[in-house]
């Protein structure tokens, strides 16, 4: 697909992978940072990474391979909710299980909302400690 600048010079629109593979310094290339592999909008995809805790995070890590914003939230969801899952097993027969459940529901709402509203700017809302790890892993991919 190609477009034209105001001065009628051609602009070719490519995916990120195509742009890297076809590096040509004489060509104007625009990369779609909002492109996803799944047929879902980026804001919904990022928010859905939190909906079922680490299960939905792992799902999006497996099936969403194009978008770093969604992959960041999938990593953050997977790491955070796996840690909370271990804590749930440790405190399964205590009153703390109810407190942990409320904390998890609150985190699903907070992090899902942040992922949804920040999708336009691709701002990564990093949860303390876990967010930095997730961001480093996505940047290293």
UniProtKB/TrEMBL annotation:
Subcellular location(s) of the protein: Membrane
Keyword field: Membrane, Transmembrane, Transmembrane helix
GO-annotated cellular components: membrane
Bilayer topology term: Multi-pass membrane protein
Segments crossing the lipid bilayer: 42-62, 74-92, 99-117
Keyword Ribosomal protein: no
Coiled coil: none
Protein's name in the database: Uncharacterized protein
Organism of derivation: Anaeromyces robustus
Lineage start: Eukaryota, Fungi, Fungi incertae sedis, Chytridiomycota, Chytridiomycota incertae sedis
